[in-house]
Amino acid sequence: MKTVFYICLLLAGLHAFAYGQLTANHRNGHDPNEPNDHTHHNAEAVACLKLVPNNADFAFKFLNEVALEEPNKNIFFSPVSISTTFAMLALGARSITKTQILEGLAFNLTEIQENEIHEGFHNLVHMLSHPESGVQLNMGNAIFLTEKLKPLEKFLDDAKPLYQLQVLATDFNNPTEAEKEINDYIEKKTQGKITNLVKEIDPQTVMLLASFVFFRGNWEKAFKPENTKEREFFVDAETTVKVPMMYQVGKFDLYFDEDLPCTVVRLHYNGSATAFLVLPAEGKMKQLERTLDKERVKKWSDNLFKSKIQLYFPKFSISGSYEITNILNKMGIVDVFTNQADLSGITGVPELKVSKVVHKAALDVDERGTEVAATTAPKIMALTLAPSIEFNRPFLMLIFDRDTNSTLFIGKIANPSTTSRSEI
User: How many helices, marked H, and strands, marked E, lie in the chain?
Assistant: First the structure.
């Protein structure tokens, strides 16, 4: 009988949204999916930027699959977290299992060497974990092992430096205590953002892999709380909810994509992160989910223009917990979950498989941020005559890191008044 290898993916989401565009190089319309010429870490950047187009392809394909599984519901996940964890798992995979994992992550193995993939992820994790001032972003991985199972030295020698892996002994024969130990570890690493990730651990479990991403950013320019007022959000033709709607007047980076159609607003955090807010025309969300890819984002980035508008954006919190094995199956990662799995590079024993993949994410959006230097002149009444863009129906949110051009988070906010967790 196959030994159970219970793998968990988790991440924490945003704490405070920030105001802006696709920072630094992206302020000049640079594509978030293309290499960045202004990185402070040229050697690291060269390696990790090789992964950019593949990681972007994986991110948008995953969004499409999640949207099919969860139509008309809130979605929030971290593609870079999932990609990084499965790349680390590929270190211990062999034969077809390894090929399926890497190709499922959107890598063409005739165009990129496996060692380039791992070196790229190593530098990606390192650069994301040392961002510039203004953004807090921590990534890490941990393996919880039963004492009777000893990982191969080679696997540890490779995984620890490449993926900042920590190895912790755990007694899975006592599931209640094991769950508490793992959940406490994850809660601490995500500063209390992700709690109770692991539930109902099988006593037969011999290994659990946890991956975490924690991100907190401040707006370059905070929304003023006194401007937040309750307004209507149109979930669908039959459902309208009241939500606290934040408000700012000023110049924003905009693009109106007539092909979809949709409206794109680009916003900035202090530091190295940027967000695209994408508001599809009524009835066009499914088309947007089906067609969104890195080429589309490049088109938006290349065609943004500044315009004075009144921006209305909801204040909300959402979270989601997903069992994503089925989605990964559809993306070609199959054998690792079956008795055909070959993970012998981890422990040296063949009877090892992944039994479950859990991915949990949370997102808070509010007014908080650090005010940038600004004019002290009073508001000019003419500003209020600027056209308004109101995110008062379902929209997408894409969060990028500027130094690595990585897609950190993707979300669909279908109903900002809903905070319940979804289970795929």
Answer: 11, 15
